[in-house]
Design a protein that fits this description.
alpha+beta; about 45% helix; elongated
């Protein structure tokens, strides 16, 4: 039974062998944890870590971050690294520690945090815990999922210490940074109507819309092209120019004087070049305010970095300073009146955009996006919009596509295609999948090359990723001559699941859907072998079923007996217009099986075999390997099986399985024997051909010594002797269909049959019945001379 959190706390405290302030710390820390934090933790693992960790950190030598490096026994029985981090309480700390671990790809089994009031003596020792009014300390226990080597552990702890310093700097300078917002807002308000909107925006950002992490002023220097950072102005994370992240986070921002002077607005809102270290793992937001004198001469730019708050993204644009006037601009440019369906959709689209796009992009571009997306709502299809940011560093791309066609694999493919076509260092992405008909992907190609042709370099490659699959499928469907089938293929294509499209090349999907639509018997499993082709490197056996997937426990043994090994399996569900659920099961074969299936003439006979096997219409046995390895048809395998079964009941020293393995070692020889036998008995062939076939069998027997394996020679010789002793057969009746085969043997001189040998034997063989009719002489009228002996068995017990 799963233990309750209170019981876990109690058991942990019982195991803690400590007293005094250490025990107080541990008890208070455990009591402050959320119940969910304690889920799946073992008191026996947790207690030693707490004792050792809090003992190490019982004395603090300063206000900064201190880290105890520990080991603990995890649930799987191994040892892993644990870190106990003590720091002054401050915003962003725990989130930022988690980000630091994720950036270094360090997994964790738990991150447990409690904030406690702690009183310390002058030397840093704990005097009291939990007293109101004492200084708050954050105590974070990170239970890592692996044991880190020294180098990796140092890298992680260095990163955590850096994060803690960044958080401390932001806390220290927060008031000063907010004051800079107010000062810049006051200065902007004196520059006309736009300046007043900028001032209102800055006040909103200061109060609720922006988590500011740093500020710096860049000034224009006479004769210098680039703006220069004013060192004394730096506040927050921008203060340290040697910081590994924030020291270069404003590379090419605010840029050179020409870029600054040509910018359309006083206010600039863009994404910075790097992700920050605090609170959320995303690229930093940049707010720039152009600074001018009373005559309009540009003096420099005020630069703020941080993150827009969650509230900022939820504030309607109509109530957001600076942005509220852009809605009217966009509607006016697009020629849309301010009320009605089209205006509502424009506003809905603008509200759904990432805030940096809604606030920075030119109104003309926004009007183009909104106008096109309104049409996409009514007729969903893929569309790509791209623009350069104001500093020409990055490429911002909006990709709209039908919601049912979105998947993580599609997003990854689009990002990869954008990076290749734009030459970007990397591509970041955000996804919006709403309740409407469209999904939207927002891609930022960082440091994309300049210049770029947006149509040929960006839009076309991305649309190829999105529409290329469906276009190729449509080309194949258009070549179908039957109009009802052609229309059904087109309709079904538009409703295919995203995971199926992502995993299946268009040509393979075309064959899948064609098979599904042509398969008129729901109870049957249809089978198709797919060989490698352009865009498809794998050989697969594909099964088509309705309302259920065939059990692998029955399929895999049958395929193994047929000489086919399966490496992996995947299944997809496709719903047709009649509401039926069709399943496509793809079985990827190994390299050797793929080689066998690729030989000329094998695919068709293999498909016949698999169709019969999976619908319980054929014997499952080792001799089925002759289909894939020798190219024999299913009925030809049944012929071989019948001869071997007759010899088994007549008496042989070999087991059934052994004989099957010997025959499978020489599939070409078996095929040669079967072809010669068919020539001998096929009634459609001339008499001369049938007569010559007997000589072929004798010739084959004459060269059996070249096999150089005694048992193989005996088994093949026996098979040839049985074929030569055969007088008549029903093999060619009913167009060679079915599994029942009858032979009439001349057994009077057949040494394979023990004494006393009958004059003739008629042998009947099928999956469910096996029998022998004996005749004692040419004229038999009952009694001993005309004895009939029928023997039935259960052939399924034998591994043929």
């Amino acid at each position: 039974m799963k233990q309750m959190p209170q019981e876990l706390r109690k058991q942990t405290l019982e195991l803690v062998k400590a007293s005094g302030p250490i025990a107080q710390l541990i008890e208070a820390w455990l009591g402050s944890l959320d119940d969910e934090d304690l889920a799946d933790l073992s008191p026996g693992s947790l207690a030693p870590v707490l004792v050792e960790g809090f003992t190490q950190l019982a004395k603090r030598t300063g206000s900064g971050c201190q880290i105890a490096k520990l080991q603990y026994e995890e649930a799987r029985g191994g040892h892993a690294t644990a870190l106990l981090i003590v720091n002054d309480d401050m915003p962003y700390l725990v989130d930022s520690i988690v980000i630091a671990m994720r950036k270094l790809r360090v997994g964790s089994n738990g991150v447990l945090n409690a904030v406690l009031p702690v009183r310390r003596s002058a030397d840093g020792s704990v005097e009291a815990v939990g007293q109101k009014g004492d200084k708050l300390e954050s105590m974070v226990l990170c239970l890592l999922s692996e044991k880190l080597e020294d180098g990796a552990l140092k890298e992680l702890t260095d990163r955590i210490e850096m994060v803690a310093r960044d958080a401390a700097v932001v806390k220290r300078d927060l008031a000063a940074m907010k004051e800079r917002f107010s000062a810049v807002a006051t200065d902007s308000a004196g520059h006309g109507e736009e300046g007043q909107e900028v001032a209102a925006f800055l006040q909103w950002a200061r109060d609720e819309g922006f988590e500011v992490h740093g500020y710096a002023y860049y000034q224009v220097k006479p004769g210098a092209r680039e703006l220069e950072r004013d060192i004394p102005s730096r506040i927050g994370v921008l203060q340290d120019t040697a910081h590994p992240i924030y020291g270069t986070c404003l590379a090419n921002i605010p840029g050179d004087f020409d870029t600054l002077s040509k910018r359309g607005h006083t206010l600039s809102i863009v994404k910075a070049d790097v992700g920050g270290t605090l609170h959320r793992d995303q690229s930093l937001d940049f707010i720039g305010v152009r600074h001018t004198d009373g005559k309009g001469a540009i003096l420099g730019e005020h630069c703020f970095v941080g993150l827009f708050t969650r509230a900022a993204n939820l504030t309607p644009l109509a109530r957001l300073p600076f942005a509220r006037g852009r809605i009217a601009q966009v509607l006016k440019i697009a020629g849309v009146r301010e009320t009605g369906f089209r205006a509502e959709k424009f506003i809905e689209i603008l509200e759904s955009l990432p805030r940096t796009e809604a606030l920075e992009a030119e109104p003309e571009w926004l009007a183009e996006v909104c106008g096109a997306v309104v049409s996409l709502y009514k007729q969903p299809r893929a569309k790509v919009f791209a623009r350069r940011d104001v500093y020409a560093r990055h490429l911002n791309v909006l990709v709209y596509l039908p919601r049912e066609r979105y998947s993580a694999s599609v997003a990854h493919a689009l990002a990869r295609a954008l990076q290749e076509s734009s030459g970007a260092t990397h591509v970041s992405s955000q996804t919006l999948v709403s309740d409407g008909p469209l999904a939207r992907l927002y891609l930022i190609a960082h440091a994309a090359r300049y210049p770029l042709d947006l149509e040929s370099d960006i839009q076309r490659p991305l649309l190829t990723v999105l529409d290329g699959w469906h276009d190729q499928f449509s080309e194949l469907a258009d070549k179908v001559g039957e109009e009802p089938l052609r229309n059904s293929l087109r309709k079904l294509c538009s409703t295919l699941p995203v995971d199926y499209v992502a995993a299946t090349p268009p040509a393979v999907a075309f064959h899948d859907l064609d098979k599904i639509l042509r398969n008129g018997v729901d109870e049957r499993v249809a089978v198709r072998v797919e060989l490698p082709s352009e865009g498809n490197a794998a050989t697969t056996i594909r099964l088509y079923s309705v309302d259920g997937v065939p059990a692998l426990s029955s399929i895999l043994p049958a395929l193994h007996n047929a000489g086919v090994a399966i490496e992996r399996e995947s299944a997809h569900t496709i719903r047709t217009a009649d509401g039926k659920k069709h399943y496509v099961t793809s079985l990827a074969v190994d390299a050797q099986s793929a080689l066998e299936l690729s030989r000329p003439g094998v695919v068709q006979v293999a498909e016949d075999l698999f169709n019969a096997l999976f619908n319980n219409e054929a014997e499952d046995g080792r001799l089925n390997g002759l289909v894939v390895e020798g190219g024999l048809r299913l009925r030809e395998v049944q012929l071989v099986r019948a001869y071997m079964s007759y010899w088994r009941q007549a008496g042989t020293q070999f087991t059934v399985r052994y004989m099957a393995e010997i025959l499978r070692r020489h599939p070409a020889l078996v095929k040669e024997l079967v072809d010669a036998w068919k020539e001998r008995f096929d009634p459609a062939l001339p008499e001369a051909t049938r007569t010559a076939a007997k000589d072929k069998l004798l010739a084959i027997k004459g060269r059996l010594s070249s096999i150089n394996h005694a048992d193989s020679e005996v088994i093949f010789a026996a098979m040839i002797d049985l074929m030569l002793a055969t007088l008549r057969t029903n093999y060619f009746q009913n167009a060679g269909q079915g599994d029942k085969i009858i032979f009439k043997f001349d057994t009077s001189n057949l040494h394979l049959v023990p004494e006393p040998r009958p004059f003739r034997e008629i042998y009947v063989f099928s999956r469910r019945f096996e029998g022998v009719h004996l005749r004692g002489g040419p004229v038999a009228r009952g009694g001993c001379a005309g004895r009939t002996a029928w023997k039935t068995t259960a052939p399924r017990c034998w591994a043929w």
